[in-house]
Design a protein that fits this description.
Number of domains: 1
Strand order of the largest sheet: 1-2-3-4-5-6-7
Helix content: 25-40%
Shape: globular
CATH class: Alpha Beta
Order of helices and strands: EEEHEHEHEHHEHHH
Structural class: alpha/beta
Distance between the termini: 27 Å
Amino acid sequence: MLRNIYDFNTRTPPKNLGYANYFIVLENKYEKTKKITGVEIKPKTVNELNKQVKKFKNANFIILTTQDYEIKRKAVDNSLVDAIAHNELEKKRSKRNYRYSGIDHVIAKKCAENNVSVNICFNDFLNAENRGIILGRMKQNVRLCLKYGAPIIISSGAEKTSELVPPDNLTAFAEFLGMNRKQSLESVSRVAEKIIKRK
């Protein structure tokens, strides 16, 4: 077992896979339990974002999922959330000379400055209709994050037991996306630890 390896974003417990711990994520609700529990919010407006962040202020962590650039920028600029996720699933079309991947250099810089993590979920690749496009976006986001120093978290994003993956697979996936060994291990351990400890 790899020590201190966590599945940061999962809907189902990854038991007997070798994780030191896992963090359950609930969508738009928070339940106080003995386990570390976070909330995934999906606001449609900036006003909704502010209300939901205030509502779930007692959660161990908050993950933002949105395809609205203004909402994402507001959250990152003001450190309203701990991580932004599912960025690669945005439906905005890429331009001729630029692949749109859900974040840009501005978002990456602000994530670095304000310690907001970019969460890349293996499940987004696993269940994608066009894996090539999603994989390309993930690699681009990793490059942006590494360039500007934004923290990256690699997680399963599993919603059911069949989507769970062992920790070795997550670190291998991180390396496939462009990280070195040290960076891949930090993406499934230290980055998540820092989020939990600051609460």
